[in-house]
Design goal:
Layout (H helix, E strand, L loop, with lengths): L5 E6 L3 H4 L8 E2 L2 H6 L1 H8 L4 H5 L9 E6 L8 E2 L8 E4 H7 L7 E12 L4 E13 L14 E2 L1 H8 L11 H10 L6 E6 L9 E3 L7 E4 H9 L5 E4 L1 H11 L5 E4 L3
Parallel strand pairs: 3-6, 9-13
Antiparallel strand pairs: 1-11, 1-12, 2-3, 4-5, 5-7, 6-7, 8-9, 10-11
């Protein structure tokens, strides 16, 4: 077993990059947007969000039209959008770069923004963006659960229930633990078997954490092309954050056999 060189990919909240003081979102979903798009609201925040969480394609055409963009927001290649629970909002330039790499099954849905111009005192339309929507890894066929480790202390704090460690030896054990005592368990060590596609350059998981992972070769291409709005965290950085916050991080382990 060896570790592959993946990094955790995140939107860059640096005000020098985004134009937004305080490191907050450049864009978010407004009440007006939801009023115009009830199907999208139900898809993202309805009672059953399994399609969204797994990255399965909905049965209607998705277009994120006239989304709010903060007047001070810079037009970065990745727009940090609040409450976007799957993927990223990417520019056409970043989309073209990603098309050269190995991604899981995914969709690009068109996005346009409305941004108030302080200079002209008018609302302008900002186009050339896409919602990169990813099919997520469930681990059902790719994870060796019996060799994984989970943070039961963190789970007890999140669930508000007494710590109750139970054996997790299969995908079904993991799902049963989630169904009987949500939220889902956070792995501190995630062991993949030979079924996992180690050629993927970008991926994220359902249940098994909220992180999106990027290969080093894709990240180097992002840097080389001068793509803006993204940053990475290394496992070393995640370790330091864990020591302060006690929010667990996940070590990825891959089976060579």
């Amino acid at each position: 077993m060896t570790n592959i060189n993946y990094h955790i990919l995140k939107c860059n909240g640096d005000p020098e990059v985004t134009g937004i003081r305080g490191g907050s979102n450049q864009s978010w979903f407004t009440d007006e947007f939801w009023e115009r798009n009830p199907k999208i609201q139900n898809f993202m925040f309805g009672s059953d969000r399994e399609l969204l969480h797994r990255g399965l394609v909905p049965d209607f055409d998705v277009e994120l039209k006239r989304m709010f963009l903060d007047p001070k927001a810079k037009h970065t290649d990745c727009i940090w959008t609040g409450a976007l629970l799957n993927g990223f909002i990417v520019s056409t330039r970043l989309k073209h770069l990603l098309e050269k790499f190995n991604l899981p099954s995914h969709q690009y849905y068109p996005v346009t923004f409305e941004q108030y111009s302080v200079k002209t005192k008018a609302v302008i339309e900002v186009g050339g963006y896409w919602w990169l929507y990813l099919l997520k890894e469930t681990g059902e066929h790719t994870v060796n659960f019996s060799k994984c480790s989970f943070d039961w202390d963190y789970h007890a704090r999140c669930s508000g229930l007494p710590k109750n460690v139970i054996p997790i030896n299969s995908y079904q054990d993991y799902i049963n633990a989630f169904l009987n005592c949500p939220p889902s368990l956070v792995p501190t060590k995630l062991v993949f078997n030979e079924n996992f596609d180690r050629g993927l350059d970008l991926w994220s998981a359902r249940f098994l954490g909220v992180q999106t992972y990027v290969s080093d070769r894709l990240w180097q291409a992002i840097l080389s092309e001068g793509i803006t709005g993204l940053e990475i965290r290394t496992i070393e950085q995640e370790t330091r954050i864990w020591k302060i916050t006690r929010v667990p991080y996940t070590k990825l382990v891959f089976n060579e056999n």
